[in-house]
Fold:
Amino acid sequence: MSEPKPLTRNQTLVLDTLSAEHAPLSAYDILDRLREEGLKAPLQVYRALETLTERGLAHRLESLNAFVACAGDDCHRSGVIGFAICEKCGSVAEFSDFVLRQRLEGWADRQGFHPHETTIEMRGMCAACSVAA
Ligand SMILES: [Zn+2]
Ligand SMILES: [Zn+2]
Structure:
């Protein structure tokens, strides 16, 4: 087991930007926030995001085409990551579920399907927004 490489400056900047935010950010949102830090090209952000998502430090929300910092240290090791996206305030809650993972893996096994990645996205209203509604 080799230690993971330390993050580059750009990767750290992108991760810090995502961590400071409670809502998902698109690559262009991130670029806007990092212009003062000298990032100019979308590709710089995309490259950093690619490494961060590969290492499980950030996740991509497919339905929003946006990114969030990982909420937990080992969520990505549990296989199935779920997101509850509030359509009102834009907050995203991340969870992982072991039983869900077992069921999905069971299905994949029976079908002979080899999943590369599984993401579950729930959209609706968070607890705070439901109370306010
Ligand atoms: Zn995560
Ligand atoms: Zn909400």
The beta strands are 58-61, 66-69, 80-86, 92-96, 118-124. The longest strand covers residues 80-86.
